[in-house]
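Review session, final week

We close the course with one last complete record, chosen because it touches almost every idea we covered. It is Integrase, a protein from Marinomonas fungiae with 327 residues. Go through it on your own first, then we will talk.
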Amino acid sequence: MRVTYNKQVFERNVKQRNFGFGKQPSFATAMVLRAAFGNGNYQTRHTHQQRFKNFIAFCHDTHSVTDMREVTPSVISHYVNTLSIGVEHGQYKISYAQNLLSTVNVVMECFRGDKKLFLSPSKTLGRRSYIRTRDPRCTFLQLKAVIAEAKPLGLERVAAVAALAYSFGMRFREAALADLERLKKEAQSGCVTILEGCKGGRMSEDRQIDMEEEQQFALAYALSVKPLHSKNLLALDERYIDFRQRDARKLRPILKKHGIRHFHELRAARLVWIYESEAGTLPPFLGGAPSKKADKLGRQKTSIAAGHGSQRPGVSYVGGKRCDERN
């Protein structure tokens, strides 16, 4: 495995510091991930680099290790124990602790070329729950307040992402990359299909959203703020990752100010509304008591609208099937 950076070639060599990918652990991490994933997969590489910094600091401060060749099973076991203590004391959520260990597994496999240091995140740190227990609902008035506050700050486009997420149940990427001109044409028939930016190739013609007042508002607003000659919310010379990292970060405090925890809650709010419309009642985690038939219909409709294509992932949006899963 090899990679070229600034005309310098780095390739795995167990006789060299950090397996031949650089003298400094942080730089070596960036190089080995580039060698493993290529120049693409920017977000994946960036995420692993950021998480692995925690392990690099641990190795340096606790074991005086600055060469990834010196990482042993006992070092990683000690790291897992530290993460476990952090979870117990509320320093980390179990999901984040698992993500930190998962990154160690990925990066060390890239460095070494084997899985001899692998430790299962779920077995060592406990299982996380994907079942929603927090109420994500917000109002159209809250969304409009966010848009109004974002405008003078030059954040109209990322506010449009929030509007699309709330009105159509889109993910951030889907909203940013949506072909707005296509949606405008489709809207004339009374519904639109979510196609661009779908996660994991989950594009489906079945994912159709009815055009009502809130959807009309969100689409009209997005069209009004999109860059000239662009079919979506990105400028022609702009990368999605740059837009997200720059503008999304700036809008988050405004969302929180108006009672919206983060972008994902906007999508979840729409999917809860879709469940309620189909099942005729709120999901159980919000106090509803649907029949098995109504609950099944609600979850099926929610999964299609979410772009999942299956029933099970719905628990992350509409909770479990029993009221006792609220706590």
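Two points worth writing down before the exam:
The first helix runs from residue 25 to 37.
Residues 323-327 have pLDDT under 50 and may be disordered.
Good luck, everyone.
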